[in-house]
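Researcher: Next entry: Protein kinase domain-containing protein (Aegilops tauschii subsp. strangulata).
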Amino acid sequence: PLDLLLQITDGFSEERKLGSGSFGEVYLGVHPDGQKIAVKKIYDMPGVDEEQFQNEFKNLARLQHRNIVRLVGYCHHIQEVPAMYEGKLVLAEKIHRALCLEYMSNGSLEKYISDECDKYDWHTGYGIIKGICQGLKYLHTKLKPPIYHLDLKPANILLDENMVPRIADFGISRLFGDERTRATKSTLGTQGYLPPEYIRNYLISSKFDIFSLGVVIIKIMAGRAGYYRSAEMSSHEFTNFVQENWTNRLHETSSLMKAYSKQVKICIEIGLSCVQEDRHKRPTVKNIVDRLNETETECTYAYKKFDVQENSGGLTPDYFMNNGRPVSEVPLNNDASPSKQARTAWQYPTDMTAQQELGERQAASLPDGIYEPPRQISEGFPESGGTTRVKLRFVDVEGPKDPLYTGCPVQWLNGENAKVVIFENDKQITQGNLSKLKIEILAVHADFFTERGQADFTKEEFNKQIHMYNENESVLTTVNLKNGEACIGSFFFTESYRKKLRLTARVERQDLAVRVQEAITDPFVIKDHRSALNGKRYPPSKEEAVHHLENISLKGKRCNDLADKNITTVKRLMRHYHRDKSGLQKLTGMKDEDWSTMVTHATTCDPGVEIYSYGVAEENCELLFNDFYDLVGVLTNGDYVPVSHLDQFQQLKMKSWKMSAFKKLEEREKSGVLIPDYLMMNGCPVRTVPLNNDAGPSVQAKRTSQYPNDIAAQHGEL
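Model: Predicted structure:
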């Protein structure tokens, strides 16, 4: 509702303003539960704003990718305001529209683009470039029809707490058929990021975004001033200029200078190829991502050796992998034969003694100078013939709550947040490459792991169980291990799913020689919350209006029909539900599926500790009902028996008495004397008011005299 947006943004105050995007201004919203969101308030543009709003909402709602900003809710509110029309004061409709997006704590890439290039190291800069390209690839190749962004620029690239980029602001996106080019004379994009074919002829194609991407990459690499120098130099000169600047920085900050310097060169070459005047010569985004993946393969070995070098203080690389072959880059060590160097360079992914020994045995058995790609070392675990057991675990919590709700941060049992930790043979790994891996948090189908257990599966079997969105893996969040552990932080699901899922932690890199077992949680389901922004709260309080429940909307027919029967709060609805379930469903007019969803939501409400009694004199017992009129137990001969402990015969007797009890409770409610007879304390009823006249004296006497000591003590305190 608009009222909630006004509340969480301080009335869209200037202090909460984060920036402006196409067709809207963005504000920071802080929900009462602490969750932060970005609220994009759509400009009032009569005649075109409705179409733009619908376009952006539909685009965002279907996107599921870790490099695309996620939609968590929206607002469409019609307000009647006084206005002058032909000299008369009339009521006119004012439409308020807003999109609610996940909040990115590091803001936009714009503030990190600097001429000094000192706001991030190369590893971070490369991760931003790669993430933008992956997000754009998703838009261009994974959606049918594809989405062209048409305003890609640093201000529209947001960075989360881990500096992972998310493409944002689809206010001027257009949906086009695959490989289709169109001409339009509407104003698109931002000066400096528009391709020449659009400036001259208003042509739009996927190469529009590629040109903008090239400008972004060059600015990341060279800064603002450096970007404009590209027009003054040849491509070769500019590449050398940028590479030299980064090499100077890498020399001071990284022992991986040679591998990273080559990666710098390839990235600047990609950027320049994207801004070619002839759009047909620009690469596709798939070509770009493939080329970046190739550079990472060449850096893999250097990265592994870097950690050993860092810890030992003097080990230098003997080889680099090039197209799957070891290439000598430095003179061979005197303590190893050439053939052994060629093999052991690959075989040492970590400092694990068992793996080193295995690599040496394999190398010694081959003829000199012949290289053979190694087998997966420790591909399995002890049960499947592996030599060591490396695994991820969720710690500090029992698991996620069940159910989870879309648009709400994942909540954990017995803990506010979860950590993911890496172990080797049940001991935390705090040093080496494995202690600083990047970890992905995903959802997997629960049934497979119920059948197979949580340890006996291969990497390939595991990957087949990943829950897909739009035919793609949906990474919920990523974290970087530090000393073998990392806090997961806040994340949430954007789509409901009826079947059981589990959360999992997986190593991002799939080419490790060590098999790192994934962490798996207990199962849960994801239900449609539609965000607290639509007024649906989990759990609802019992005094909340019924329109806060799922499938009941304010001013809707269901809400009005319930109000006619004085069913205006969750408590009143639940009382009616326990008295007459079928009658209540008939009153709402809900079909079974909607009914089940509403009831599931309502039953998450806490009835409180108030207990009402109904005495059955002939049986010398009392029936005890909670504040929702749900039978919770029986007091008989001074002993309390929960309803779950009653046998079948006793439950049948309770059923016959319940209707009389309901009538008595209704009479007390209408007369205004419905006061709790007991409070449920530590699972036992404690007397709070004088005994009712409808219970026999013998029952009263036994009940008060036969309380256990601790209950009697509580009674005395009350």
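Model: Note for the record: The longest strand covers residues 71-85.
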